[in-house]
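Collaborator request, handled under Task 6.
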Amino acid sequence: MNFSAEQIAGILEGQIEGNAQVEVSNIAKIEEATPKDLTFLANPRYANFIYSSQAGIVIVNHDFIAEKEISATLIRVADAYKAFSKLLEFYNKVKLMKSGIDQNTFIHADATYGQDFYLGHFSSIGKHVNIGHNVKIYPNCTIGDNVIIGDNTIIFSGVRIYSETVIGTQCVIHGGTIIGSDGFGFAPSEDGTYNKVPQIGNVIIEDHVEIGACTTIDRATLGSTIIRKGVKLDNQIQVAHNVEIGENTVIASQTGIAGSTKIGKNCLIGGQVGIVGHITIGNNVKIQAQSGIGKSLKDGEVVQGSPAFNYSDFSKSFIYFKNLPKLASDIENIKKRL
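Structure tokens returned to the collaborator:
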């Protein structure tokens, strides 16, 4: 899809300097751009590239002063970086603006969906499913029975959403994610075997949640596994049954959260963190990458290590950790002298 400098300037409320009718169809870095690309200049370190760039359009700050001739059309704005981010958001919305139902799909007769709905090839929707307006479900997705999906939610290819799951508005779920699979519940028998405990709860995902690729969120044994409003989950995260994650908490890749743990609001959790079950993590907690959390944490704590403890104490202790061989040698020398 092509956009002219005039159209882009209208979106950004910018001032055009050059050919207002020049058109671009892609976005690129300033040093790699072609005549059909749009780019931006915000960091002065990259200023030299604007004179050699082949870009069709460059977004610059109002106060940018050219020292040489520039072949590109300029669009001057108050803040080039923010303007470019706004344009990326607009471009992404246009790119994802699909509607209609592709061939080789299945929609149960009892399912309902709103306006501007898109369903990709080889996707299926179960009975009593309720889907809102402007929802996009990409190819090879499975939506189980009695699922609810709110307006403006995007579900990318290969997602599996099990029955009774509730998903809010303006959520994004990336490819390969599984929501609502059985929690890991088994009761040991006297003969050493295990009997499966039925998992009859569900998963609730509130509004404005984004879930990365290949993440798994298990249904509750009873009640609900809950992902609160504004949560951002990275790729390859495991959320076990009956976990609750508070509003606007961000969790990085490969973290595992065991069953029935409650995590508060506005927490930042690094990659490869392991969290045991049945504990409570307060609001505004920060957990450094690869930490092991074996007990509850209070509001505002910052921890690191496995088992994790106060981040400041960990940093001081690390000085001793890395010098342990030398310290051991010094102790041996002292013992010999004595």
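The cover message to the collaborator said: "The chain has two domains: 3-95, 100-314. The helical segments are 5-12, 49-52, 80-95, 311-322, 324-337. Please let us know whether this matches your experimental observations."
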